[in-house]
Amino acid sequence: MMENNFTISPFTQFKNKKTDHSETKRSPADPVKIVWERAKKRFRDARGSHDWEHTLRVIRLCEHIGPIEKADMPVLLIAASLHDIGRCQQDKSNGKICHAEIGAEMAQAIISDLSLSEKENSNIIGCIRTHRFRGKHIPETIEAKVLFDADKLDSIGAVGIARAYLFAGELGARLHNPENNIQNTKSYSRDDTGFREFKVKLCKIKDRILTPEGCRMAKQRHDFMVIFFQRFIEEYNGNL
Ligand SMILES: [Fe+2]
Ligand SMILES: [Fe+2]
């Protein structure tokens, strides 16, 4: 089967973007490339809303925001490649297992044999542990902040809306449930609609973004969602 254009190696992407790894002093066995290959294999059975394509979009956002925020790009890109490797466990447990916590443990096993300094290693694990919107930990390093923002940006705007309905479809949720009070509905249920996700989570994301460039992008994506859902309700009610 032909691979689509978005599954090319990050090195090809870097050459077209701001980060050129040919100019870094890493050996040919570059940890970023090794992790990229290892991570990709872990997503074979992932659901569409949190699959390898999501990771690739997060990587592209990191490539955009990281250089602006002066992030350590190898650390950021390794963390971005691995940030959702625990997601399958969370989905299988219907949200009981935190994918950021278990993902950090899984990531440690994946990177332990690589030529990373202790500081790089702990930064990568910290990035993964703190990337979750509903998580308990706060991103501290600039790399953790950029990853947090990149991951959140992919859950809002046009892509975010598409993902919200993809996720709702994976759960067997309805298109919309206007007769139920959202406060009384549950996640991972038939009431976990795209509109519910917007009201309980997506509309709040722009106020949690941590970097200036992330904030600028989040505002645009947020404004688009507001317009979309206003129109969605009008169309649902037969007014437009
Ligand atoms: Fe995640
Ligand atoms: Fe993610």
Major sheet, described briefly? none
Q: Give the percentage of residues in beta strands.
A: under 5%
Radius of gyration: 18 Å
CATH topology of the largest domain: Hypothetical protein af1432
The N- to C-terminal Cα distance equals 42 Å
Q: What is the number of helices?
A: 11
Structural class: mainly alpha
Small molecules bound = fe (ii) ion
Q: Can you identify the CATH class of the largest domain?
A: Mainly Alpha
Query: What spatial form do the alpha-carbon principal axes imply?
Result: globular
> Could you say what the CATH architecture of the largest domain is?
Orthogonal Bundle
CATH superfamily of the largest domain: Hypothetical protein af1432
Mean pLDDT: 88
Q: What are the secondary-structure elements, in order, as H or E?
A: HHHHHHHHHHH
Poorly predicted residue ranges: 1-9, 11-26
As for the number of domains, it is 2
Helix content: 55-70%
Strand element count = 0
Give a summary of the structure in a few sentences.
With 240 residues, the chain is mainly α. The structure holds fe (ii) ion (2 copies).
Present the secondary structure layout.
Blueprint: H1 10-16, H2 31-41, H3 52-68, H4 73-82, H5 87-92, H6 99-111, H7 118-129, H8 142-153, H9 157-171, H10 194-200, H11 212-236
The chain binds fe (ii) ion (2 copies).
One fe (ii) ion (FE2) binds at residues 54, 58, 83-84, 151.
What does this structure look like?
The protein has two domains: 12-137, Hypothetical protein af1432 (Orthogonal Bundle), CATH 1.10.3210.10; 157-236, Methane Monooxygenase Hydroxylase, Chain G, domain 1, CATH 1.20.58. It has 240 residues and is mostly helical. It has helices at 10-16, 31-41, 52-68, 73-82, 87-92, 99-111, 118-129, 142-153, 157-171, 194-200, 212-236. It has eleven helices and no strands. The chain is globular. The structure holds fe (ii) ion (2 copies). One fe (ii) ion is lined by residues 54, 58, 83-84, 151.
